[in-house]
Structures
1.
Amino acid sequence: MSGVALPTKTDQADRAAFDAMRIGRKLWRATRWSAVTAARLAWFLAAAPFRLVAGVRRVMTPASTTLLVIGIVGLNIIWGYPWLGIFSVCVSMLGLGFLVSRVFRPRLRLGAAVPLHAQAGVPFSVQIYVRNAGRLPGLETFIRFAARNAVSFRETQPVHFIDYLRPSGRTRLSTTAVIERRGVHVLPEMIVECLFPFHLFRSTRRVPSDAQIAITPRPLDPSDNLSTQNLALSIVGFAKKQMSGESMEYTGSREYQSGMSVRRWDFASWARLGQPIVREFSSPAIQSVVIVVDTAAVAQAPQRRSRQRDKEAADRKILERILSTATTAISELTKCNVRVTMVLTSEPDAAEQVTGIACTPKLASDLLIRLAAAEFVDTATADDRMNTRLGAQGNTPVLVLSGRAQMDLHHTLGQRSTWIRIDAPSDGGAGPTPRPPAAPNTNDRKHPGSGSQSLTRANAQVQR
């Protein structure tokens, strides 16, 4: 026999408690929503006067402010001619001027074109392309870049004025700008202002810019201090050293023809054959050099916040000095027609990152753009990337620019490597001094600490 279970008093009590809890949650949600809405409304009403004043100040100009002051003065004087007419004129000009400024607000499409790279602190050209996308002409329009102090962006011509631009019309504005900080930067947003009519009201619109430019490091300036001068001389000496072994190889002799150089007469063949003979020479293949830019930051024990900031500032100076030295090295080596391959430890381990090769100053732009994007990397990652990328260089000369004193990479760098330690810039100091390496022997392996002591004692040196 089947039956239906009747609810007990315990079940009824549980159901009543559940219903009460659900009603309480609904009441709490309604109360919270009411409180939040009331708070938002109160904040809006409290901030409305300040927003209104800020908006009025943003759109008003000296001309409209003068009209407003004259209108207020007209209200406080006994009514009659001519004050009533003056007040009416002021109100009419303000109202009509505001309406016309809203209607003739320009609808421009802006674009900027910049070169691929520029040197830090050196002016570069900027082309601004303007197109009127509205149905009304653009009148009394001002275009300028927003101030951007983070990258020290400065424009030689701060404001560009367009008197009239017909609908669907196009124009181009040319200017020059300067960026002081190295890196890959996006141009600041452009501000479009219209003061039509009669400069009564100002309509402002910000247009973001997507133009990027790579700001490359400055080369070393030997006039800064003695340390920088010695460092620059070391780089120049290294570049000339790569070409010191170049000699003209004899390839054969041939009969003299009109227009040929006669600086190398072959007198013996001339006397034997009875006709003028000249010798021919050719230079060997282009030399190759690998530049390793070590951007590793030396890790230290935790310090106070103030000392940590000073340490980060010092590391930043060393990194910029390393990049400036690399820029100078690329410039000097390409002047000597040396094929330069750069290894940058801050770049990921990708094959396409090592393909940048330059043998003339015009082809060095890719290397300079890579230097512009250089950043700090930890020591272990830098060591691993140097080992990976320099493993197949063979007998190619390697120039290592680093802020560290030494590294255990002798099995990778080889015998034709030159290590230059670069310290923070200072007013004095002898700077790095090239020194031929000592011949390796068995004692060096038994006493590895002797080499490190000599490296730490020297302020800056070159180790091959």
2.
Amino acid sequence: MCKSYDYFLNPQKLKLFPANPPKDATLKWFMGLRAHSIRTWEEMKTAFLENYKDYCMPHNLKDEVLKMM
């Protein structure tokens, strides 16, 4: 999406995030963020990845971690 708008700067990416609203559970997460709690693209990226880190983990690595428990 950023590429199609030639948005390569982080402030531009941050503005585009709500313009392309997420769906379902991600939308609920996004709408649940405190007002003005995200001021930079780095804060958005960190918050998003922290919330969805389990989904980003490679499956084989996740299986290995679960075996240790």
3.
Amino acid sequence: MSKILFIYPNIEKSIQENMAIEALSANLQLNGFSDILLWDNTFDSKKELTRLVKEFSPTHICYTALSPDFEYAKEINNAIKEYHTATTIIGGPHVTFLPFEGIEHFDVVFRGEADNSLVQYIKTSDNKTKGAWIKDGNTIYMNELDDLPDVRKLPWPDHDLFNLHMDKKITWSKLPINTYGTFMTARGCPFKCTYCYSKGMQDLYCGQKYNRHRNIHNVIMEIKYFSDRYNMDALYIIDETLTTNKKRIIDFCKEYKEVVNIPWHCETRPNAVNEEVLSAMKDAKCETVMMGIESGSDRIRNGLYKRNLSEEQIIFAFKTAKKVGIQTSAFNICGAPTETIEEMRETIDLNKRCSVDMGKMTIFNAFPGSELWDYCNNNGYYIRKQYPKNYYIDSNFQHDTLSIKQLIDLRKEYVDSIGGYSGSKNKEEV
């Protein structure tokens, strides 16, 4: 009988449900695998992991890792292999684009979305499972990608697995929130910003629709069930760009107000909202909308990042949100290749003109799968192998002319200029 242990490396120890593990766990259960446990680095110790592996004795140990988590996942996995013989499996963006790094240390690497292919592999141990690179002795089977799963046919994510993450204080909310859930109405993003791996995923799945929407009523029923189960004060809709289909979000808001009607927060883009959409969101108790400004410099924002957003569009979106009564939070990046201090200060100026209520400014990092990863490698930039735990105070990328300290000082200048939440956990980091 298969026994599955999920490992969530979460080296930053951020308090947020991991939707990938929740989705995989739920689909495994739907297909008859009920013996599933989680070791979560957010709360659990290495001593607890050793005890868990020895007592539970899993047949499969499954990791998901963003790039910053990969080295720690490797460390954990190498330690477990000294005393246990479970098949070790890893997935996530990092190994999707750098599978050779994964297969060097793990038995199986899943590339892309593995909802169905993971089930298939655990059922059959087939070396030809789609989506997987599989090590068998001295042979590595490098199989073609599986098709993207139909999100309308997948079960609700296993939120119970991450219930400890629902006890969360929300810095960007004005409300007294103690229990906070995370939900997703769609997968994928249709846009191709160069600092993100979304374009890389779209290229991998060329010919398939990467941005896929779930059935609205099904999502609402999921939110209703779990918000009642955990007595949630508010929730976060974690779609990469929630409002790509304006009619859909208006329909969502109407049913949400009737069935759930608790405060919520979300992310979208300035050119994916208008007054009608934002008014519907406000009427359905949307408290905060987070949108990317990223850079105030047209050369950086549209030339380098390929955001295809004018200043007028950005200012309109933020001002309109404020007009209808939704508070705003802005995403920003500093320290991109070739970016100057003057251009970074243009970002501060544009945030001011948008009258953002809160904002985040991270330091640029180069990620596998992104267009800027290729740009940096092809243009001789130094990219450090070790990713930072905190993007607000460090980077794996060496800027043309500026030091990390200078970029941190620039971040402080940004935070001082707008006030509000900075995205940094510690005061000394702002």
